[in-house]
Write a structure and sequence with these properties.
The structure is a single chain. With 552 residues, the chain is α/β, with parallel strands linked by helices. The chain has two domains: 10-95 and 147-243, P-loop containing nucleotide triphosphate hydrolases (Rossmann fold, 3-Layer(aba) Sandwich), CATH 3.40.50; 284-516, Rossmann fold (3-Layer(aba) Sandwich). Helix content is 29%, strand content 22%. It has 17 helices and 22 strands. The chain has helices at 48-55, 79-83, 101-106, 120-133, 149-162, 179-194, 206-212, 235-243, 318-325, 348-354, 363-367, 374-378, 394-407, 424-437, 454-469, 481-485, 508-515, and strands at residues 10-19, 22-32, 37-41, 63-68, 71-72, 87-89, 167-171, 198-202, 215-220, 223-229, 282-291, 295-303, 307-311, 333-338, 341-342, 356-359, 442-446, 473-478, 489-494, 497-502, 532-533, 538-539. The strands form five sheets. Strands 6-7-8-3-9-10 form a six-stranded mixed β-sheet, sandwiched between helices. It has a six-stranded mixed β-sheet with strand order 16-17-18-13-19-20, with helices on both faces. Strand 1 (10-19) and strand 2 (22-32) form a beta hairpin. Bound molecules: adenosine-5'-triphosphate. Adenosine-5'-triphosphate (ATP) is lined by residues 19, 22, 24, 42, 44-50, 421-426.
Length: 552
């Protein structure tokens, strides 16, 4: 722990928590000093979310003590007491979509006399005052569901501070933000830190830990492993603490300094392109595809044996394009064909029958059935293979699921465990297992490594590579550079159009610039293949050297 004379805003020690036979936390501890930005990292299932639920009063630990600024934690169930101490901004929103920002900020406060008629104007004025006070530029009259993820997080932070909390937990807050959103969020957190607000920051993006935090705590297998100033623990040591394995040569290189294209490192254990299996035949062909308000006139092919990246920031249209391929949206124009056959657009069963497998963006909304078991979730797409004449044989489900659990290294007590009892990263693996279960011709994976730890990320990307090596095609839709680095080529989208194409060896700087709209409608790095520029309606020209906008 860093030297500090001040009383910690939060100090938990000897915390243990079991769920049945699963030990989620074993004698774990953490302490966060005022004004500190403290990272908590660990592999999937290490116990981070369980600690968060204990620190926020949502669950009682089996053993251990918890103090806020030296005082014992509020009684279990004393909602207002907990709110005044701590708040957590989750990846998933806790604001109520149908209510206005002002209502979200002030309703349900016990301090506000419940029976008095609500004075809306006054409510909005107070909300405006509060938001302005924290430098949050959001209209208090706006409905919460209209906010961007970033605005919603700022509202949640302002709400927490207005309850008096000076300790805020951020659980994977950057998972749904693009590069600029992350920059703005970090800017705001630094500002608040200077005012003495302390943060516990949970992220699988280790670079963010170095960018934002002063100290880091590592948990492994439910236990506290180390707490140190980030400056004293380089990434190799951090990954070593997380995995318990000796300094790994496959730890991702720190991404602080963009490297020249030719030197851009891949993971030291490369995910080799399947040259042998690659064929010139496109397995996926998309032409003139338009979804009003999302993307227009998209031309795209993915060959057998290829892994193609579809990069783009939040509003680029890349996610909606990926979803369209799986039948989730009906495009207003254009064609999709798989293995030479036209697919009925806007129809999920047709896409599935044509051999499109989807890893959806949001595993909670589109991915998993919470009350069902790991086995049921993993086999939802293949029930026809699990028994004769529409029946489902439990023995076959179990055998099928057992293979998937092993294949994807899913940490679960067993196939019958409800999927909701798995840690976030392991739930994501179930979603991927389900997409792979159909042995798709074309795998569309949207942010496939969302929420998974650094080691599992390598593993999953390698698994996607195997799909291509088996002569299939994969499209990775993502803004994660690690995801995109594993691709044979990357298409960048901006404002609904494919604006550039990148061959392997691209530099982070160029790809990020393209995702931010600075590719100026041509390939920023040498394109791998000819590709029709939708902006100009002509083929992109090969460009050999640096085309970052500032060099033009
Ligand atoms: N409600 C629950 N019932 C049963 N087991 C649970 C429950 N909640 C968590 N667990 C188990 O406790 C362990 C710790 O899970 P936790 O969610 O805290 O991990 P995590 O570090 O947050 O992982 P991730 O990075 O994947 O989100 C896991 O093995 C998980 O399956």
């Amino acid at each position: 722990m860093p030297e500090s004379t001040s009383v910690p805003v939060v100090e938990a020690s000897g915390i243990s928590k079991r769920f049945g036979a699963t030990v989620a936390l074993a004698e774990a501890r953490i302490a966060v000093a005022p004004g500190e930005s403290h990272a908590l990292v660990g592999r999937n299932g290490a116990g981070k979310s369980t600690l968060v639920s204990i620190l926020t009063g949502l669950q009682r630990p089996d053993t251990g003590t918890l103090r806020f600024l030296g005082a014992p934690a509020p009684a279990f169930g004393d909602t207002d007491g907990w709110r005044a101490k701590v708040a957590c901004v989750y990846q998933r929103s806790t604001v109520i979509g149908g209510l206005s920002v002002a209502e979200n900020l002030f309703l349900n406060r016990q301090s506000a006399p419940g029976l008095r008629p609500i004075r809306w104007r006054q409510l909005r004025e107070r909300a405006a005052e509060l938001l302005t006070g924290y430098g949050v530029e959001v209209d208090p009259a706006a409905r919460a569901e209209e906010l961007t993820v970033e605005q919603r997080q700022f509202v949640e932070i302002a709400r927490a501070l207005s309850f008096g909390a000076r300790f805020i937990i951020l659980d994977e807050p950057t998972a749904k933000l693009d590069a600029r959103g992350i920059e703005r969020l970090f800017g705001k957190l630094r500002e608040l830190q200077e005012q003495g607000v302390a943060f516990l920051f949970i992220s699988h993006h280790l670079q963010e830990v170095y960018d934002l935090c002063t100290s880091v705590t590592v948990y492994r297998d439910a236990r506290h492993i180390v707490t140190a100033p980030v400056a004293e623990l380089d990434q190799a040591a951090l990954v070593e603490a997380m995995t318990g394995e000796g300094a790994s040569h496959s730890a991702p290189a720190p991404a602080a300094e963009p490297q020249p294209a030719a030197e851009t490192e891949r993971s030291a254990e490369p995910l080799p392109a399947a040259e042998a299996e690659r064929s010139a035949d496109p397995l996926l062909m998309v032409s003139g595809l338009t979804l009003t308000g999302a993307y227009r006139n998209v031309e795209l092919t993915v060959g057998a044996g290829e892994v193609v990246g579809l990069a783009g920031a939040t509003a680029s249209g890349n996610v909606r394009l990926g979803e369209t391929l799986a039948g989730l949206h009906r495009p207003s124009a254009g064609r999709i064909s798989v293995a030479g056959k036209a697919v009925r657009t806007g129809d999920i069963p047709s896409a599935l029958a044509a051999g499109v497998g989807l890893v959806p963006e949001d595993r909670h909304l589109q991915g998993l059935v919470a009350g069902r078991s790991v086995a049921e979730n993993a086999t939802l797409t293949v029930t026809d293979q699990l028994g004769p004449c529409g029946t489902v044989l439990p023995s076959r489900i179990a055998a099928f699921a057992g293979r998937m659990i092993e294949d994807l290294d899913i940490k679960t007590p067993g196939p019958d465990t409800p999927v909701s009892a798995l840690s976030g990263g392991n739930q994501q693996k179930v979603v991927i297992a389900r997409a792979l279960a159909t042995d798709p011709h074309v795998l569309v994976a949207i942010r496939p490594t969302n929420g998974v730890d650094v080691k599992s990320k390598e593993f999953l990307l390698r698994r996607i590579r195997q799909v291509a090596q088996a002569g299939r095609a994969a499209l990775i839709v993502s803004d994660e550079l690690d995801d995109l680095r594993s691709c044979d080529r990357v298409l960048a989208m901006f404002h609904g159009e494919i604006t550039a194409e990148f061959a392997p060896g691209w530099s982070d700087e160029h790809l990020v610039a393209a995702m931010e709209g600075m590719a100026r409608g041509h390939a920023a790095d040498a394109p791998a293949r000819g590709h029709t520029d939708p902006v100009r309606g002509q083929a992109t020209t090969e460009i050999e050297e640096d085309h970052h906008v500032s060099h033009d």
